[in-house]
Amino acid sequence: MADSTRDSSLAALTALHRAGRLDEAQVGYEAWLLEAPASSLALAGLAAIHAQRGDFVKALDHYARALKSNPANADAHRQKGIVLCKLGRLEEAIECLNRAIELKPDSFVAYNNRAVVLKALERFDDAVADYDRAIAINSEYLSAWKNRGITLRALNRLDECIASYDRALEIDPDDAQIWNYRGHVLRQQGRLADSLASYQEAVRIRPDYAEAHYNQSIVLREFGRHAEAIECCDRATALVPDYADAWWNKAEMLVLTGDFENGWAMFEWRWKSDRHGKEFRDVGKPLWLGDGPLEGKRLLLNVDGGLGDVIQFCRYVPLLVRQGAQVIVEAQEGLIPLLRESFDAIELTPYLKPLPEFDCHCPQMSLPGAFRQSVDQLTADLPYLRAPALLREAWAAKLGPKTRPRIGLVWSGGNLHYKGQEHRSIPLEQMKSLLTNDAEFHCLQKEILESDRAALASLPIQTWEAELHDFAETAALIAQMDLVISVDTAVGHLTGAMGQQVWIILPFDPDMRWMLNRTDTPWYPDVMHLFRQPSLGDWATPLARVREEMLRWIG
């Protein structure tokens, strides 16, 4: 075959390949290789088809053969690097992409590819530098601007990230994915209206973009627009019926708006979510969700939340015992002495330690759904937790005779790494507005932010962090308080579970269990009073109300 005819035929195969006619292109490449087994271009073309079909091992073999035939094939080095990245062989991928760039230093695509691998290696600064090199060669290269934005977000360089996305949108204003990514960053910056607008633009461009519908629901929920948020979840699940995150978000909003029966049942979708499903432990025994007798069975209540969740949902233990279950409660180490004091005839096992023998299990946050209770049917036999008598006596002696009302304070959560910490916590600078000489104030937090320590030293708040070894100690200290004022933390739950007066200050977008537009809660009737932000970020208003009521309560 003449060289010109050969080149023309190979070009035709390449055209078939680019048109997506993979079967025809593969037949052609294979036929070509029968005549020219060392054809680097045909081997690379066949490798690319294998990669497109997800057969990366075959693709890698064909790229190796292509490069053996022509070591100077820069694009084959580049494509081999991409395949090695897909196989998780990242350092080898870098080597291939380095060689591709040596052979073709003006390849903006290769710089982009190498940056993707560098990001996967968490070498974020190096990745940004490569994206910048790609853009310097071709300032209209959309992928580099988009990927650069993603990497800048990983570096928490959010303003630069937005600028990168905005530049990408100048190149292609109809890229729905970039509008969606942009919405994430704007939400992270607290620019919720702009975030919502970005998500809305994404679904305007791509009405079938399920993820953007779901993301709209998140922001609408934060705005308190729950009916619209639920509609967005419904659109997402209509497009992707097994969209676990959307079902989970809808479940929480149903509970939040008082539809306990449907909401708690739907809450089981959380286990299929990428966000929560990784926390699911296959304990090797059947799941009990209220659908069978418990007489004589050993039932494990396994942890699937935080400390406050264990405290709140252990209220169901007596109901389960009355059904004949032998109840085993899994709990964090710090809760075990308190639970041992509070419940008779149950077994306790430390969280994430080897489990005892059991017949079936129920995650603790699945208990409301298992009992299929409406709001009016909630179980609230208070108190159901109590501090050990010896500890109560020790704390009473430590505090001495009471001369003024004693008020316990909690302004930030105990889990300083909890992603919602900032959302639920009140700056100490604002919380100190509650202080008055007419009461004695005690910090009930075991964990105190370093940034709060200096301020605390000058405030009339007694701290006990070094002595609060576990929740039995905390409960004994709470028992000495006349009132506890807390943000949404385990200490608030503990005070309510002990049947003591507690005022909880909630963010505008509260956890689902607190519902909406209520100053009381059926979880802790008669002892818990709720104070709510009237708008996002406004702690001043509920704090002013708390101070007014506190002064009236002090008398």
From TrEMBL:
TPR repeats lie at residues 40-73, 74-107, 142-175, 176-209. It comes from the Bacteria. One of its GO terms (molecular function) is glycosyltransferase activity. Keywords: Repeat, TPR repeat. PANTHER family: CELLULOSE SYNTHASE OPERON PROTEIN C (PTHR44943), TPR REPEAT-CONTAINING PROTEIN MJ0263 (PTHR44943:SF8). This is Uncharacterized protein. It comes from Brevifollis gellanilyticus.
